[in-house]
What does this fold into?
Amino acid sequence: MKSINTEKAPAAIGPYSQAIEANGFVFASGQLPIDPATGAFPEGGVKEQTRQSILNAQAILQSAGLTLSNVVKTTVFLADMADFAAMNEVYASFFAAPFPARSAVAVKTLPKGALVEIECIAAR
It folds into this structure.
């Protein structure tokens, strides 16, 4: 296993890696919508937070020499399933066919009161 870290995404806030590479796959930890330059969530709502979460995942993948086109699976955690359509609109602007497999689930709460968190698995 190889740990993947970049300053272009928020640092881990616990005992975990931003991503781990193993057997040709990169497993990126869930990305909160924290702007690594400011340490804060972007202004706005779930659309802006979705965009930042994906940009954070993209930065981690880039540090591993990959792009979003290498993503084979994502999991989207939403604080409110009523935000699904807005999240999906932004999400669709980052991915192209063949789209990665995806799960989207509503959870009771997310760290720091985030509206969305996104994790992904990419393949070399």
In short: The first strand starts at residue 2 and ends at 4. DSSP finds two helices and six strands in the chain. The chain has a mean pLDDT of 97. The CA atoms of residues 95 and 106 lie 21 Å apart.
